[in-house]
Amino acid sequence: MGSGPAETETSLGSVADRLLEVAGRTDDISVDMLIRALGERSHYTLLLVIAALAATPLSGIPGVSVVCGLLITIIAGERIVSGDRIRFPSWAKWQNLPAGKARDTLKKIRPAIEWVDRHTHRRLGWLMASPMNRLPLLVCLVGGLVLPFLELVPFTSSIIASRDGVFVSLSLIPFAALVWFVTRAM
């Protein structure tokens, strides 16, 4: 497994193009195929791709939210604890998504991908650098743990990862409010 493209040079559009290329060659896409296409050092990109897939109609397929949640939890937890390379248990590497549905979904969400590419930039870099990057990774880890429970209500999965510090900051507001309310209630 090569290290793949550098994360700093990855736009969501180029990620979608690589995924469409992979999905065009097979009937099912495995997690291992995603890692090979995106690179084994692309934690944030892989988090975003998995979260984006969970936020699409694919989440209506039984088991997709569970698998996506577990993968998000594993990736975020591994990045927090051990660092630079993505390592998965063998059972996780061979989980599959139907390639046809993934292709259709990627084509449908292309306008959203282009919007995100236009509006996200490398900002608030300190939030995305160690040790501060652990905060959004912790949010991803918690979100990944919650995602399997969303399986009970189809199509309720949501995007929980971004590489733009401004968007990450905005996504932390509801979590901060929740913590504030919980601590005030105690």
Describe this structure in words.
There is one protein chain. With 186 residues, the chain is mostly helical. It has one domain. 60% of the residues lie in helices and 3% in strands. It is built from 10 helices and 2 strands. It has a two-stranded antiparallel sheet. The radius of gyration is 16 Å and the shape is globular. The N and C termini lie far apart (49 Å). 33% of the residues are buried. The N terminus is likely disordered.
Quote the distance from N terminus to C terminus.
49 Å
Poorly predicted ranges: 1-9, 155-162
Total domains, how many?
1
Instruction: Specify the number of helices.
Output: 10
What global shape is seen? globular
The portion of residues forming beta strands comes to under 5%
* Major β-sheet annotation: 2 strands, antiparallel
Average pLDDT for all residues: 75
What is Rg? 16 Å
Number of distinct beta strands = 2
Note the run of SSEs as H and E: HEHHHHEHHHHH
Derived from helix and strand composition plus strand pairing, the structural class reads mainly alpha
What strand order characterises the main sheet?
A: 1-2
Share in helix:
55-70%
Keywords:
mainly alpha, 10 helices, 186 residues
Per-chain topology:
Layout (H helix, E strand, L loop, with lengths): L11 H12 L4 E3 H8 L4 H12 L9 H18 L8 H4 L2 E3 H10 L1 H10 L5 H4 L5 H13 L18 H21 L1
Helix pairs in contact: 1-2, 1-6, 3-4, 4-9
